[in-house]
Design brief:
Among the domains are: 2-53, no CATH class; 61-110, no CATH class; 250-333. It contains 17 helices and 6 strands. It has helices at 2-21, 27-39, 41-53, 93-116, 127-134, 137-142, 158-163, 172-183, 200-207, 210-215, 225-232, 237-244, 251-258, 262-269, 279-293, 296-309, 315-332; strands at residues 60-70, 76-88, 152-153, 156-157, 220-222, 247-249. Strand 1 (60-70) and strand 2 form a beta hairpin.
Length: 333
């Protein structure tokens, strides 16, 4: 009994020392096994219950960065533009992350604008001026992912300045160099709309330029009615066929389903007439979304009826929808 008490006391003191060395571990947590040895199971159970019901609140220091790299020792570290450090707990991390992202974006924009100030930004219709910016060391180091094409300069972005350029014999070499650089940039936002309300894709369709169309082959565009008009005016049938296979999404339909709005759904269904709409896939996606997010009465009385009226509800789609509803019912029964 004496040896047990001595051993327990020594263990308790060691635990207190470890706690002092490691702030993340409380003395009580470390001492719990030793105290159990001293005073037996009941006390161990009682203290364990207290600890379980009164868990400590932890705080962390975090910092956001544009990228992650490894130094010569293999240690992971942030690289590129960084945010300030934030003290967060389990209840504040969402706002802190949002703040970190905004800080990094704002700092990147400041770095970009300060860098391009030394170049001729009033004549970006000349590909040579765009190319000078892209070849700048800071732009190559900090914006090689394509963000440089998304920031406004003199009321326009580099993307729209490039798309507004007409390739001619005297600027063809610079034009091709810019396009080659853009091929490796994954963060260019091709959903941009310029000050006149013209989208980047509309400009690409109007140009009927095969190489420029290739740049956006895997990009996901948001549907705009103006794209249909641009598509219908394409003269090159080969270009038209390639353009029809672009990835265009129709978010208004899913917004209407989310809010279970029959009127909004009627308006959104007009978009299904677009040549860019892949109706079979979109109908499958609609049914999947509605089955998971809408009331059964809305699906049956509004969506299904609408699909039937438009001759879009195939037997396969209908059977799949019924099977999903039955499965959901059986899981909740």
């Amino acid at each position: 009994m004496l040896s047990s008490a001595i051993g327990g006391t020594i263990g308790f003191l060691i635990s207190m020392y470890m706690c002092a060395k490691n702030k993340d571990i409380t003395a009580m947590e470390l001492a719990l096994p030793m105290l159990g040895g001293l005073f037996g199971g009941p006390l161990l159970y009682t203290i364990g219950t207290i600890l379980y019901r009164n868990k400590p609140t932890y705080e962390y220091i975090v910092q956001g960065g544009k990228g992650i790299t490894h130094n010569a020792l293999g240690k992971t570290q942030l690289c590129g533009t960084k945010s300030k450090e934030y003290r967060i707990d389990k209840d504040s991390w969402v706002n802190s992350v949002q703040n970190m992202v905004k800080e990094i974006q704002d700092e990147d924009r400041r770095i970009f604008l300060n860098t391009v100030r030394k170049y001729d930004t009033k004549h970006l219709d000349n590909p040579k001026n765009i190319l000078q910016i892209l070849k700048d060391r800071t732009i190559k180091n900090e914006f090689s992912n394509g963000d440089c094409f998304n920031y406004e300069i003199e009321g326009q972005t580099l993307l729209h300045a490039f798309l507004d350029t007409i390739p001619l014999e005297e600027n063809q070499k610079d034009y091709e160099q810019i396009r080659y650089i853009m091929k490796g940039m994954k963060h260019i936002n091709y959903n941009q709309i310029d000050g006149n309300g013209i989208s980047a894709l509309e400009k690409i369709l109007n140009s009927e330029n095969h190489q420029t169309l290739e740049l956006v082959r895997n990009f996901e565009f948001e549907y705009l009615r103006e794209l249909d008009y641009a598509y219908e005016n394409i003269q090159d049938e080969n270009f038209k066929r390639k353009a029809k296979n672009l990835n265009v999404k129709f978010p208004h339909i899913f917004e209407a389903l989310k809010h279970e709005s029959p009127d909004a759904l009627d308006a959104a269904f007009e978009e299904l007439k677009s040549p860019f709409c892949r109706k079979e896939k979109l109908v499958r996606d609609m049914i999947d979304f509605a089955s998971a997010n809408c009331r059964g009465s809305f699906v049956a009385n509004v969506l299904c009826r609408k699909l039937e009226n438009e001759n879009l509800l195939t037997k396969e789609a209908y059977d799949r929808m019924i099977a999903e509803r039955e499965d959901r019912y059986n899981r909740w029964r």
